[in-house]
Amino acid sequence: MIYCIARSFLIGLIGLPAALSAQDAPTEFSIGLHTGFDFTQGNVQQHRYGVQSYVGLTNILGIAGSVSFVPDLFNRPAVLSGYAWETFVTGRVRPFGVGTPLSLGYGLSYSGYRWRDVRRNVETSNTRRTDVAIISIELPLPFVRPFGELLLRDLLVRGFQVGANAHFGFNVRIR
């Protein structure tokens, strides 16, 4: 496992200098809003709302971050009630260059939840860190950019089912 991670990291480092030296455009900064859902279990659940930002380091490399809030974690208020939040920080690359809609990313997720069992009057809260991979498609318009992205969590965690989220929204390009 460690060997696989180290090998992937080294492969990424080999291509990084070439990508950085080939780019001479100014950086980009955008902020936006999103909505989404979890479909790990095969159905749409845990609707979420949030904000995100993107800082372009070069034309093809950037850093993205987002914060989501899940107001109704279980959608069964008579039995279980609760909420959750989730943050993502990912490195992004546009493999086909600037102005293309596809971007790929990998990074970290930090999430937390708080829920209450109404029948037993028990409250629980917890936080969790894991990895996340993102495939994003953004319509590269000049100012407002609609996007959709698929987020896959727990890729490197053994014993967990890979989680899947979808986010849809728009970014406003500031610079």
- What share of residues are in beta strands? over 45%
Indicate the mean pLDDT. Answer: 80
What spatial form do the alpha-carbon principal axes imply? elongated
In angstroms, what separates the terminal alpha carbons?
A: 40 Å
Radius of gyration: 18 Å
Order the strands across the largest sheet as they lie in space.
1-2-3-4-5-6-7-8
Structure description:
- The chain is mostly beta strands.
- Helix content is 11%, strand content 57%.
- The chain has one helix spanning 2-21; strands spanning 29-38, 45-56, 61-70, 80-93, 102-117, 122-138, 144-153, 163-173.
- Residues 1-22 have low confidence and may be disordered.
Gist of the model:
This protein has 175 residues and is mainly beta.
Quick tags:
175 residues; mainly beta; 8-stranded antiparallel beta barrel; elongated; disordered N terminus
Furnish the topology, listing elements before pairings.
Blueprint: H1 2-21, E1 29-38, E2 45-56, E3 61-70, E4 80-93, E5 102-117, E6 122-138, E7 144-153, E8 163-173
Antiparallel strand pairs: 1-2, 1-8, 2-3, 3-4, 4-5, 5-6, 6-7, 7-8
